[in-house]
C-alpha cells in the first residue's frame, strides 16, 4: 500500500495503474500485526537487514509493514545471497543482469506498474502530447539552480547565473530558432532562469504554470496544491522528450528514465565546470561497475567557458 500524504495526498495527482496500492484506513489495526520502518537518509540496521538476512521470510509474519524512507535499497535486495531463491527475485535475476538491477534502471518499470496520472494531470499534459502528435520534436530542459524558493534550506549553486547563457549558446549552435518543427519544454527551480530562456525562444517554448515547490521539505504552505500539480506535470512531460538537456538532479534524472529511449540525445549541463556533456548507456561500452550513479557516463561535447565544441 502507498499512503503518501505529505505535503499533499498523492491520490489527488497519481492513481493506481496495474497494481492497486490504495490504502484502506477502515481496516482495523487492532487485530493485525505490523512492522514500522523509518529510514530517512540513513539507517544502518535496515541496510544490514536488507543486505545479509532473510528479511523476506522475517517480514512475512506481519500483516502490515509500513516503510517511511527515501533510501535506494534496490541493488542491496538483489545482491543478498540469502533471498535469491525467492520466486520474484529469481524472476528478475533470470531475465536481467545483476548489474542492471538498480533503482536507476528499474524505476520506470515500477513507476508505470504503480501509477497513472489523475484526470487533472492527464488533461494538463494533453497540449504537450498533442504537439508531439502533430509532428513536432520536443527538446526538454531542466535547470536545477538550487535555493528553491519554497525551501530556504536549499543550497544555491554559485555559477547558476551563467547557466542560461551557456544553455542558450548551445541551443543557438544547434540552430534551434530555425527548426520550425521543434518545441522547447523548460522547467526549473528558478523563475529568473525560466523567464530568461522563455524570452530567448518565446515562439517555441512550452512551460507549466504554477508556483515552484520543493516537494521533500516545502517551508511555504501557500499554493501547495498548484505547486504539487506542477511538479507532477513537469515530471511526466520530461518523460516525453526527443532531446533532453538536464542538470544534476534526481527529479529530472528519474523523469528521463520514463523516455522510451532514455539515452537518446541526452545531454547534461555540468554546473560546476560549465560544460555540456553527452551521456550514453553505461552498458553500451564494456562492463560497468557494480554501482553507478545516474548520468555518470557522459563526455564533454561543448565547453561553455571557452565556447569550444
SSE pattern, N- to C-terminal: EEHHEHHHEHEHEHEHEHEEE
Span between termini = 49 Å
* Principal-axis shape: globular
Alpha-beta content class: alpha/beta
CATH class annotation of the largest domain:
Alpha Beta
The residue ranges in which pLDDT falls below 50 over 5 or more consecutive positions are: 288-296
Strand order of the largest sheet: 7-6-5-8-9-10-11
> Which percent range fits the helix content?
25-40%
Total domains? 2
Tell me how many strands there are.
Answer: 11
- CATH-scheme architecture of the largest domain: 3-Layer(aba) Sandwich
Mean pLDDT: 82
Number of helices: 10
For the biggest sheet, the summary is: 7 strands, mixed
Provide the CATH topology of the largest domain.
Rossmann fold
Q: Name the beta content range.
A: 15-25%
- The rounded Rg comes to 21 Å
Layout of helices and strands, plus pairs?
Layout: E1 14-16, E2 34-39, H1 44-52, H2 55-59, E3 64-69, H3 74-79, H4 87-95, H5 103-114, E4 115-117, H6 119-133, E5 137-143, H7 160-173, E6 182-188, H8 191-200, E7 205-206, H9 224-237, E8 243-246, H10 250-256, E9 266-270, E10 275-279, E11 298-303
Parallel strand pairs: 2-3, 5-6, 5-8, 6-7, 8-9
Antiparallel strand pairs: 1-4, 9-10, 10-11
Helix pairs in contact: 6-9, 7-8
